[in-house]
Amino acid sequence: MYEGAVQDLIDELGRLPGIGPKSAQRIAFHVLSAEAADVERLAHVLTEVKSKVRFCEVCGNVSEGTRCRICLDPRRSDDVLCVVEEAKDVVAIERTREFRGKYHVLGGAINPINGIGPDNLRIRELMTRLADGEVTEVILATDPNIEGEATATYLARMLRGMGIPVSRLASGLPVGGDLEYADEITLGRAFEGRRRIDA
Amino acid sequence: MYEGAVQDLIDELGRLPGIGPKSAQRIAFHVLSAEAADVERLAHVLTEVKSKVRFCEVCGNVSEGTRCRICLDPRRSDDVLCVVEEAKDVVAIERTREFRGKYHVLGGAINPINGIGPDNLRIRELMTRLADGEVTEVILATDPNIEGEATATYLARMLRGMGIPVSRLASGLPVGGDLEYADEITLGRAFEGRRRIDA
């Protein structure tokens, strides 16, 4: 519809996740009227992120060095290992400031429909990390959906017999939410996981 | 939250219109796992669009040359001029295949709240184009909202006395829509603009 370069940009933007044709057009026109320096900077960070950022050789988190900031942080405990699907999940948990251990990023969840089995995830690396006996608790923090639950169940079975306590993040009502709007599975989990408060 | 380059990319993406922090993060992680060649291509078209694309010196539409494809097209009539706010509107009208005249892109609409007055739009250029008397009809196709209506009213007043018939796109019920869901202003306009079908 547009002339050469504008259409090329709309096409490329439309390949990004969550960007439909309308958004792509909107962004392209924003780029057209933006300062050249701003666009230059965006183009620069796009290529830079590909050349600079790799994955931490220990935990699989995104990192600019061979090891990530968290793995290198001496104030963080090596006793507790929190297993997550993606690097995004590390950031979400870090935001809570509740966890001072280390992470292990699987790089996804078991999803047979998309052809992702245990061998496609960093499970072998997890087993190697746990082999030296330093870790005293493993927290399975995969997503509370079918794939995440399947992955947690698989990992719990793998870890059984290693003598390391394994826990799973609690499911229940989101704080600040409304009980009547909770779906029945979440509400069921909240009942199941209810805690005594009279003690 | 993230290390250097990843956070830089998230920040830059978050400056684009319609991209919130969550989308920016999602796109950044997509970029991290995408093929280097694909990211390179996106970075390339971003800078290329800035260097290649300019605005047509006649109509103000986006163009890779000094004049746009539509202005250069000898099959298009010079008699009818369609005045729009943005280059996007040209594409929308072209899609209808109803219009075979030329365009004039104002570069926005009168919006006192955002400090956009008539002098910030390409109205002087419009007057110059109309001065030679070749145009026999002006269609005001600004948006059917407050700013677009104000701009159309302003232009209609400017053009009065030039002896050129001026029309405005019809307002009414959207085709394929449902009468009961139409807002009262649209429905009011549809009544106002009703057409006899018995003749």
From TrEMBL, chains A, B:
SUPFAM superfamilies: Recombination protein RecR. GO terms for molecular function: DNA binding; zinc ion binding. CDD domains: TOPRIM_recR. GO terms for biological process: DNA recombination; DNA repair. It holds the Pfam family RecR_C. Residues 79-174 form the Toprim domain. Keywords: DNA damage, DNA recombination, DNA repair, Metal-binding, Zinc, Zinc-finger. PROSITE patterns: RECR, TOPRIM. Signal peptide: none annotated. InterPro entries: DNA_Rcmb_RecR, Hlx-hairpin-Hlx_DNA-bd_motif, Rcmb_RecR, Rcmb_RecR_Znf, TOPRIM_dom, TOPRIM_RecR. The keyword Nucleotide-binding does not apply. HAMAP family: RecR. Belongs to the RecR family. This is Recombination protein RecR. The lineage of its organism: Bacteria, Bacillati, Actinomycetota, Actinomycetes, Micrococcales. The gene is recR.
